[in-house]
Amino acid sequence: MNKIVKEHYPASKLPVELREGIDASALVTVTIQEEAGRKEPLSREQLRQLIEQAQQGAQGVTIEEAVARIRALRDEWDD
């Protein structure tokens, strides 16, 4: 996994979406690290297979069970 660290980097050189909330005259430390994991997006077929596998392993609940869970979660906030 590759990692690049730049210390004392002028905030004014950062892209706008990374500069938000930071004074343009400030110095920052920028760390760029490659994410581990899949490098290519899933194909339609791979995605379809993953969805089917998830659906086969999923346990359904009745409407009454779902309502009871929601009410229990809601009631936690009333305390």
**Helical content (DSSP H or I, runs of 4+):** 40-55%
Q: Order of strands across the biggest sheet? A: 1-2
Shape: flat
Mean pLDDT: 89
How many DSSP H or I helices? Answer: 3
How many structurally independent domains? Answer: 1
Describe this structure in words.
A two-stranded antiparallel sheet has the order 1-2. 43% of the residues lie in helices and 19% in strands. The chain has one domain. The radius of gyration is 23 Å and the shape is flat. It is an alpha+beta fold and 79 residues long.
Summarize the structure.
With 79 residues, the protein is α+β, with helices and mostly antiparallel strands. Helix content is 43%, strand content 19%.
List keywords for this structure.
79 residues; alpha+beta; flat; 3 helices
Helix-strand blueprint:
Blueprint: E1 3-10, H1 16-19, E2 27-33, H2 44-57, H3 63-78
Antiparallel strand pairs: 1-2
